[in-house]
Amino acid sequence: MNTKMTTLGAALLAISCLWSSHTLAQTNTTVTTTNGAFTEYVPGSETMVVRSESDSSPLRYSVTKQTTIVDEAGGPVAIDRISPGSSLSIQYTGSGDRLVASRVVVRRAATATTAVTSVPPAETGQQTNTTTTTTRAMTHEEKHALKEEREHRKKAAKEEIEHQKDALEKAKDKLDDDD
Questions:
Q1: Which run of H or E residues covers position 165?
Q2: Which of 9-18, 67-76, 88-97 has the lowest mean pLDDT?
Q3: Bridging pattern class, strands 98-107 and 113-116
Q4: H/E stretch holding 123
Q5: How far apart are CA 104 and CA 46, in angstroms?
Q6: Predicted confidence band at 16 (pLDDT cuts at 50, 70, 90)?
Q7: Is residue 17 within a helix (H) or strand (E), and if so which, with residue range?
Q8: Are the CB atoms for 67 and 103 separated by under 8 Å?
Q9: Which residues lie below 8 Å from residue 84, measured CB to CB, with a gap of 6+?
């Protein structure tokens, strides 16, 4: 009987250790959702740039193999098929400069709609409200400005690479001269 108690105690101790290590290994991940307009996708860095509805500066989201990109109906969408200005809903984790998209929903462009309540104020004592919601596609000028911005960034990146190449070449020459 004493042996059975010892075995049972050892088993309970092992189970509690396993449970506590499993509990400590769990982490809480906060998933945040934001809405915005697709600006561009940078394939080399696997980065999607989105201009948020709530912030004027563009946000950069890392796109991984685990990132799901779908339309509103849940059908898969290839990231290279998303056009600039498309409305997106992005679920992501992280903060600051490290935002990792877990799910991207490409929303259909909404058309201008008007809802009018036509109850006369005299009969009910309430006001008549008119609500207009408009979502528009990007204008030609806005698309052109985005293209110009992209080209400017590409040119700046190429110049930086050339500058780094020159610096490396000078350092190499100096090392060769020292030998």
A1: helix 140-178
A2: 9-18
A3: unpaired
A4: helix 121-124
A5: 14
A6: low
A7: helix 2-25
A8: yes
A9: 37, 38, 39, 40, 138, 143, 146
